[in-house]
Design the sequence.
């Protein structure tokens, strides 16, 4: 080995070559080598994988093909051997190039199992159930990685890249096998319920927080198949899904699988029997409606709106509860979210019953009037598109005597004052439709609106005149009292102003006290009450004097100077 030099330079032990290399300011080439990540830019998590328990013994042997197996017992044993062989877990995150030969053996075995279960009949025996569920659990039930976006900001599918599982080549085949296993005609739920229990459902639901959209899509199908085949687990599955929603609402405000869970619930709600149970109505009020207030609602809003509409199609008496819930959670400052609320509102109005519409039309159109007046043109535009819906126009026409007075002010005002010309055209269209509905009512609303505007202008003028008169009175009063000293206090304070009580002679203090008149009496001045009444206004810097306190203070100072008295 070459000998290392033990000599050090005076400048700190660096070699001459290092001194020459690091002397002087850094060059531009050196700066170019430094990669600066912009603030707020997300890291590339394309291969961000979960934490798997990698098997110790990963050397696999290639087994014979299932189609070459002989009798049923031999084929069942080979099937179980392949299932156990697929329980081997490999590393795809830290060292993806390791164990390539054995990874390929497992992949080929999984493909063979998928094809075998799909096309063969009578191959799922009682001994297969625990082995298949164990293989599924061993490969998929794992610790998910920490969220790349822990604050739950909105995910933009056009700009943000999804986080993908590095082990997906094997995970996908495991999901495919289990789905074919559940969908097989040979599958018997009564036999499988010993392996697919409540604990299995909980672990399956935990995987919905995976950031890989491909996995969440297969999980959605898997859970839906389990819900359809295991009647005893249905109530439990709904309860656990509710718990996930409650966690999002009141704890974390983020979960990656809300859209998929709502999609499952949409098909479940569609199959509810009538009349609806009280449990299902509470789910609508306590879960679905509060989900409208979550920050990341845009990720799952289409599925949420579908579930709400499904409830209304089942039971129209829930319309008032739903509309009031939407108005309660209506966004105040988030315009894109307001547009989503308007989209959902139109879907609800498409299925609403006329008698239910009359119950909620006043608060509903008061909110629509505020939306029409919104300075954000997309909100105003989306609200005015309601007048292009034939069914909504029928409902408005039947109740124009109530709706037109509510909407007229917002429409008339924004037809002239809104900054966007497209909004002007839509408002003119709405006004024209109202005019064609009821010309007499339209004229009455016009006259009433003009009278209200005149009253508002007159009231504003009176307010301005009152403020102007008050300002003139204040100026005149300031000129009147300028330079005046309140006489009620003058006789009591003139003898004591600018006095230093600490250094005054006791005899002088006594004379001063004797010279003060008694409380409430005057010699040459006007009575105190009259003076106070005359000088009602005083300057902020002038503070009233408590004469008894001042007198007691002088007496105390006298005793302090001459303790013998």
Sequence:
């Amino acid at each position: 080995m070459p000998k290392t030099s033990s000599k050090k330079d005076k400048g700190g032990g660096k070699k001459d070559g290092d001194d020459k290399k690091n002397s002087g300011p850094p060059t531009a080439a050196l700066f170019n080598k430094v990669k600066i990540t912009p603030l707020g830019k997300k890291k590339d998590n394309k291969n961000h994988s979960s934490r798997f328990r990698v098997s110790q013994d990963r050397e696999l042997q290639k087994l014979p093909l299932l189609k070459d197996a002989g009798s049923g017992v031999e084929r069942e044993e080979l099937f179980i051997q392949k299932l156990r062989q697929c329980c081997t877990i490999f590393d795809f995150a830290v060292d993806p190039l390791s164990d390539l030969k054995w990874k390929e053996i497992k992949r080929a075995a999984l493909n063979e199992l998928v094809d075998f279960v799909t096309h063969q009949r009578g191959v799922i025996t009682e001994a297969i159930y625990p082995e298949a569920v164990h293989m599924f659990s061993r490969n998929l039930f794992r610790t998910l990685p920490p969220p790349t976006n822990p604050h739950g900001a909105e995910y933009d599918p056009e700009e943000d890249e999804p986080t993908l599982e590095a082990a997906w080549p094997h995970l996908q085949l495991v999901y495919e096998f289990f789905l074919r296993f559940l969908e097989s005609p040979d599958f018997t739920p009564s036999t499988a319920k010993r392996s697919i229990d409540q604990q299995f459902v909980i672990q399956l639901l935990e995987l919905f927080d995976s950031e890989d959209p491909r996995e969440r899509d297969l999980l959605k199908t898997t859970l839906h198949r389990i819900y359809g085949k295991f009647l005893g687990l249905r109530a439990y599955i709904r309860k656990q899904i509710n718990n996930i929603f409650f966690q999002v609402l009141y704890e974390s405000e983020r979960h990656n699988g809300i859209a998929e869970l709502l999609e499952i619930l949409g098909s479940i709600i569609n199959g509810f029997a009538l009349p609806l149970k009280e449990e299902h109505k509470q789910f609508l009020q306590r879960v679905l409606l509060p989900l409208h207030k979550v920050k990341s609602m845009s990720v799952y809003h289409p599925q949420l709106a579908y579930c709400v509409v499904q409830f209304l199609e089942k039971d129209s008496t829930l319309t008032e509860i739903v509309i009031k819930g939407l108005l309660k959670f209506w966004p105040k400052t988030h315009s894109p979210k307001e547009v989503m609320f308007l989209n959902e509102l139109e879907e609800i109005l498409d299925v609403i019953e006329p008698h239910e519409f009359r119950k909620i039309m006043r608060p509903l159109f008061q909110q629509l009037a505020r939306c029409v007046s919104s300075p954000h043109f997309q909100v105003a535009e989306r609200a005015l598109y309601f007048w292009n819906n034939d069914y909504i126009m029928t409902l408005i026409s039947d109740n124009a005597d109530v709706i037109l007075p509510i909407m007229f002010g917002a429409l008339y005002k924004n037809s002239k004052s809104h900054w966007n010309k497209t909004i002007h055209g839509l408002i003119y269209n709405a006004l024209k439709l109202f005019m064609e509905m009821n010309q007499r009512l339209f004229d009455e609303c016009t006259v009433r609106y003009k009278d209200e505007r005149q009253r508002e202008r007159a009231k504003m003028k009176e307010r301005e005149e009152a403020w102007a008169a008050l300002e003139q009175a204040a100026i005149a009063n300031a000129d009147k009292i300028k330079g005046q000293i309140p006489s009620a206090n003058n006789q009591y304070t003139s003898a004591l102003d600018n006095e230093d009580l600490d250094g005054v002679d006791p005899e002088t203090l006594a004379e001063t006290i004797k010279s003060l008149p008694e409380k409430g009496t005057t010699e040459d001045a006007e009575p105190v009450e009259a003076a106070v009444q005359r000088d009602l206004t005083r300057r902020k810097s002038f503070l009233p004097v408590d004469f008894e306190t001042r007198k007691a203070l002088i007496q105390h100072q006298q005793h302090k100077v001459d303790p013998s008295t």
User: Anything to note?
Assistant: Residues 439-481 form the longest helix (43 residues). Confidence is low (pLDDT under 50) at residues 1-47, 487-504, 519-526, 528-535. Residues 489 and 544 are 8 Å apart (CA to CA). The chain has 25 helices and no strands.
